[in-house]
Design a protein that fits this description.
single chain, eight-stranded parallel beta sheet, 13 strands
Length: 422
């Protein structure tokens, strides 16, 4: 994608019923919010966000049998999603070379294990906005009710159970206030809109709702040319709306035309195509929340973001959904980490499919990762229960990876040596 960071902005026909009798559908991209500078900040970074105990997710997951690996959720989702919805979720821009590069780059990273360390690993990690049960955040992804009726509320509940932050999208199909009311740690992802007043309103709403951090996506001046969506004439069904935008602001996303992506037409009409460093400075002045800048690949941009007051940069190519031909994020991660040094945290997005991938990112210097598509696939396959199972599986995979490489915790993994190519 998340993005999906694979962030998704998605439209589709109503989906057929899934195995649980609920309509299944597809995903999309994330969103914003920042308060004014006079408002109190969100939860202190030192406040831990602990996962719920085993019983918390047990009843929700009853009857759902998870697959053996996180990546296996893809085929479960493909079995219940319409073809055009699957294309929207799985596809990218252009020839999809960047999607392939993301996966290939991670697969080329070999991590040198340590032995005889005598550790029993813990997986907790500090990220912007708090200390969490895993060095993982749920990537911002739009219109999650297209995937399953549980939608944003189901995936956010799964994140709460897992003890990780959920990043709510500007283009979510559930209002941010309803998501925060469900509890857990929420970050708000902002797309920069042409209407500056609406941007300010979204920031105020995110702060009032109690968001713990703000993430601004900077790599979508226009939507990438996603050929699968064009061929499918992708459009949102009438019952799925951009719930954080005023009524009528998403009309274009519902107007299906052969050979046209209605989602691309909609974003072209509402997204500001000329986001600048001055806009980032304006945003920084309007909030005391931790600010993450998502969509950075060039180390020079990462340094400038840190100098502008960003608390973190997210190395992301939008899951291969924007500029096709951009480098893989795992390729650029070490350069970005070296460039920013200790000026801000660095997170990795795009292509993460396992706990081993999380460990690879940590060993390359990231403080944590965003996970997108696999959680959408899990949502499509089993609703909230599927998403809970996916995050539990990711935690188990990461714990195994830490144990097998001799790491006491995610911070220790950043000291592992990496080799490229085996």
């Amino acid at each position: 994608m998340a993005e999906p960071t694979d962030e998704l902005v998605l439209g589709c026909r109503p989906a057929p019923a899934g195995p649980d009798g609920c309509a299944s559908a597809a995903p999309s991209g994330g969103g914003p919010a920042v308060p004014d500078a006079t408002a109190p900040a969100g939860p202190p970074v030192s406040d831990p966000v602990a996962p719920a105990g085993p019983a918390a997710g047990a009843s929700a997951a009853a009857g759902f049998v998870p697959p053996a690996s996180l990546a296996d959720f893809a085929e479960l989702a493909r079995a219940v999603l319409p073809g055009d919805v699957w294309d929207f979720v799985a596809g990218g821009s252009g020839a999809e070379t960047t999607i392939a590069a993301n996966r290939a780059a991670l697969d080329r990273v070999a991590v040198l294990p340590r032995v005889l360390t005598g550790v029993d690993p813990r997986t907790e990690a500090a990220l912007p906005g708090g200390t969490y049960a895993l060095p993982v955040a749920v990537a911002p992804m739009a219109y999650q009710r297209l995937l399953h009726p549980d939608g944003e509320l189901g995936l956010a509940a799964a994140a709460r159970t897992a003890g990780v932050p959920y990043v709510a999208s500007t283009l979510g199909s559930t209002p941010i206030e309803e998501i925060t009311a469900a509890g857990g740690s929420l970050w708000f992802q902002l797309y920069w809109l042409r209407d500056r007043g609406l941007v300010a309103d979204l920031l105020d709403r995110a702060h009032a709702a109690g968001c713990a951090a703000l993430m601004v996506t900077v790599d979508v001046p226009v939507l990438g040319r996603r050929l699968r969506d064009l061929r499918n004439g992708f459009a949102l069904p009438p019952q799925v709306t951009a719930a954080n935008l005023p009524g009528g602001r998403d009309d274009l996303a519902h107007q299906g035309t052969p050979g046209v992506s209605a989602v691309a037409v909609h974003t072209g009409a509402v997204f500001a195509p000329a986001l600048s460093w001055a806009d980032l400075a304006w945003l920084r002045e309007r909030t005391r929340l931790p600010l993450l800048v998502k969509g950075v690949l060039d180390p020079r941009d990462a340094v400038r973001a840190a100098e502008a007051g960003a608390d973190a940069v997210v190395v992301s190519n939008h899951g291969g959904r924007q500029f096709d031909g951009a480098p893989a994020t795992a390729t650029m991660l070490p350069e970005v980490v070296a460039a920013v040094a200790d000026r801000c945290a660095v997170l990795l997005d795009s292509g993460v499919r396992s706990g081993t991938d999380v460990l690879r990112a940590l060993a390359l210097g990231a403080a944590g990762v965003l996970v997108g598509r696999p959680l959408l696939w899990a949502l499509a396959a089993g609703g909230r229960a599927g998403a809970e199972a996916a995050l539990a599986l990711l935690a188990a995979e990461l714990r195994d990876a830490l144990t097998l490489t001799g790491c006491a915790d995610p911070a220790a993994a950043r000291h592992l040596r990496t080799l490229t190519g085996g």
